[in-house]
Amino acid sequence: MISVKPKKNLGQHFLKDSAIASRIADTLDAFAPLPILEVGPGTGMLTQFLLSKGRNLTVVEIDRESIAYLKEYFPSLNGNILQQNFLTLDVAEYYDGPFCVIGNYPYNISTQIFFKVLENKDLIPCCAGMIQKEVAERMIASPGSKAYGILSVLLQAWYDIEYLFTVSEQAFIPPPKVKSAVVRLTRNKRKQLNCNEKLFKSVVKTSFNQRRKMLRNSIRSLLPEESPLPDDPMLTKRPEQLSIEQFEQLTNLLEPLAGKNFLQENKN
């Protein structure tokens, strides 16, 4: 019999509550019959409920013990187990149309997982799963709150985000030191930003990396030394005070002032 030990270096906390796993699997029902990619299935607690729905399911797992376990206990997954790191997975190699992403995500890379989803937003209309409660709160945060930051702005620009429910530490083996939450991201109707998208990302990240400073000070590094800052009241604010639309405005304000080399590197 194959057993799997949770590995700290992989951020593994195996879900043991089947009722919660069933609820997580239900979060994608509105997107049937799209295929599903499960990230980090571990011992298959969530996998079993996804399979019961008759959906086209592929799992991506980096842990060899987990893969051996899945092959033994879920033979119906034969041919649909990818022994890869989701963060480096070329999803276009496996999907030429829309698919959903789900998982009890490894907590040490959960933020990176959502940025990976964002990179493939045109293929992923829905993403759901379990993450740290703190990360979930950052994802849904509104302007003006302490939790509002890079993750909030970049994800909310393209997805409607729902905080579905909180999960106790005792639902896992081993119990994590933090509470968890289940979230669902649904692609919004935005087709493109009203600005240079790559420059927008740079403006958002640069602004929040020095979130205590006024914007006129934090975004200075994005402009050539000789370039004067515009006289705009928006620059006297701090980044957490700006909405997504205002960050678009700020990006448009800065684009004519940015150096040619920078614009070339950040062109759409």
Report on the architecture of this protein.
This protein has 268 residues and is of the alpha/beta class. The protein contains ten helices and nine strands. Strands 4-3-2-5-6-9-7 form a seven-stranded mixed beta sheet. The longest helix is centred in the C-terminal third of the chain and has 13 residues. It is elongated and about 65 Å long. The model has no long low-confidence stretch (mean pLDDT 92).
Class by SSE composition: alpha/beta
Extract low-pLDDT stretches.
none
Compute the average pLDDT: 92
Strand content: 15-25%
In DSSP terms (H or I, runs of 4 or more residues), the helix count works out at: 10
Shape: elongated
Helix-strand pattern: EHEHEHEEHEHHEEEHHHH
Distance between the termini: 52 Å
The overall strand count is 9
> What spatial order of strands do you see in the largest sheet?
4-3-2-5-6-9-7
Q: Rounded to an integer, what's the Rg over CA atoms?
A: 21 Å
What is the makeup of the main sheet? 7 strands, mixed
Portion of residues in helices?
25-40%
Descriptors:
268 residues; alpha/beta; seven-stranded mixed sheet; 9 strands
Quick structural gist:
Helices cover 31% and strands 16% of the residues. With 268 residues, the protein is of the alpha/beta class.
Topology readout:
Elements: E1 14-15, H1 18-26, E2 36-39, H2 47-52, E3 57-60, H3 64-73, E4 81-82, E5 100-104, H4 110-119, E6 126-132, H5 133-140, H6 150-156, E7 159-167, E8 172-173, E9 180-187, H7 197-209, H8 215-218, H9 244-254, H10 260-265
Parallel strand pairs: 2-3, 2-5, 3-4, 5-6
Antiparallel strand pairs: 1-8, 6-9, 7-9
